[in-house]
Amino acid sequence: MRPGPLTVLGIVDHAIELARRHPKFVLTTIVAGSLPLALGCALAIHLVRLKGPDPAALLAGAAVLAALAVPRAVGWGAGLRGLQAILDDEPIDPPALMKEAFARAPRLYSAQAWPVMWTLLGILLAAGPVLIGIFSSNIARLFATTGLVLAGSTLGTLVAAFVALYVSRCILGVPVAATDPPGAGSALRKSAELVRGQTPRAMLLLTCLALFQIMVWITLVEVVPWGLELAEILTGYSFLELRGVLTYRDSSYLAFQGALAFLAMEPLRCLCYGLFHSDGETRRGGADLMARLRRRAPAAAGAPREGETAWRG
Amino acid sequence: MSPALSCANHPERVASARCPSCARPICNECTIKIEGINVCSDCLRKRARKEESKRRPRKGAGAAGAAAAVIFGFSGLTVVFFLYGLLLASIL
Question: Which among B70, B87, B89 has CB closest to A52?
């Protein structure tokens, strides 16, 4: 019987294992590519906080951030090609992978920018009705405002579900753009074809990764104040000033830790998408069956034939 | 009883089926069974040609499409980051 597709937790587990086994490759491709965008986002939030709303500066900053998404796409491309090499038991050469991914930069960028744009827009569109519902709620007029809260949250949930559905169809865009031969058709269209029938699994993977991302962020935000508090107890020194700045109430600190959390999760995200893609492709192409047959063939050749004893001493 | 129909490609042979696409009578040799349906070789050839022309990228379409995708991606991301900037500026 043919085994079922990899479970979402199986994919995450495999991705963590691969990242642990190849730290240098992960750092020099995926993390290095995403570093400019992560730091750029943190710096942009810090500057917005310091300088306030200035439409021209905001637009220029937004264009810079959109440009910083190019190295991220290249890093992902290199990471996904490297993943393919690891799965094929071939040697990995990060500089050569980056060079190869750079040649595909437009294709990788367009395949990555579209879902990122819809994810960010989806968060805005889903948060809008929910926030309107929450802010218009009034405990003194509970019955009058409950309907509005329910309507707002339902609309927000529906928008989030539709956007998640669309984005989950696009998750294989970058793996397709990184591994398909140049000149092949639209990566996003092929991604939608590959995800067809696997949409709940893809949505579950996205949800898992989003939850992990939030958990890593909260941990990173909380670990520094806790560490400082512990250091105060152990050493007797006072870190009151530092603790006043490094707290979740400070938006710059939150943004910086968010950037760190984003960077920490990037390899996992990239490798999970790659494994999801290779799982679907190998099953579709029958490569998994071939590998299983190849593994079984030597065993079958060495197995005792009918009438023979298993052990001839 | 109606007389036996002869194959459209081989008049000397008796037809064994009728192509559902062009409705011509065809003999065993001209019949190709695809997904349980008997199709004549001419219709199959025509269909294959049509599919191939659909799949073949037009000259310059690939580069233009890639450029358009990059421009749309870049401008879309810029707009979204700008919206987030406006939102953050009003909150912080």
Answer: B89
Whether A175 is covered by a domain: the verdict is: yes
How high is the ipTM of this complex?
A: 0.77
A161-218: per-residue pLDDT in tens?
888 888 888 889 999 999 887 767 788 888 888 888 888 889 999 999 999 999 999 9
Q: Is residue A178 situated within a structural domain?
A: yes
**Does the residue A259 lie in any domain?**
yes
Mutate to test the interface with A, among B82, B90, B91 (most CBs of A within 10 A): B82
A183-197 pLDDT tens trace: 677 888 888 888 888
Neighbours of A251 (CB within 10 A): 16
- At A304, which helix (H) or strand (E)? none
Residue A124 structural domain: 8-282
Which residues of chain B lie closer than 8 angstroms to A255, CB-CB? none
Identify the CA nearest to A206 among candidates A276, A104, A126, A112. A276
Angle at Cα A202 formed by Cα A199 and Cα A207, nearest 5°?
A: 125
Searching chain A, which residue's CA lies closest to the CA of residue B63?
A183
CB contact (8 A) between residue B87 and residue A124: yes
Facing B90 at nearest CB: one of A53, A65, A116: A53
Task: Mutation target for B interface from A70, A76, A104, A120: give the one with most B CBs within 10 A.
Answer: A120
- State which amino acid sits at residue A82: G
Exposed, middle or buried, A143 (CB in 10 Å: 0-12/13-18/19+)? exposed
Handedness of CA A74, A117, B74, B55 (dihedral sign): positive
DSSP state letters, A129-144 = HHHHHHHT--GGGHHH
- A139 in a structural domain: yes
Task: State how far residue A110 is from chain B, nearest Cα, in angstroms.
Answer: 5
Report the domain count for chain A: 1
In the structure, what pLDDT confidence band is assigned to residue A3 with cuts at 50, 70 and 90? low
Distance in angstroms (rounded) separating the CA atoms of residues A253 and B58: 51
Q: Using the beta-carbon criterion (under 8 Å), do B88 and A48 form an inter-chain contact?
A: yes
User: Which DSSP string do the residues of A39-87 spell out, in sequence order?
Assistant: HHHHHHHHHHHHH---HHHHHHHHHHHHHHHHHHHHHHHHHHHHHHHHH
Measured between CB atoms, which of B57, B65, B78 is closest to A66?
A: B78
Please judge whether B62 and A251 are an interchain contact, meaning their C-beta atoms are less than 8 angstroms apart.
Answer: no
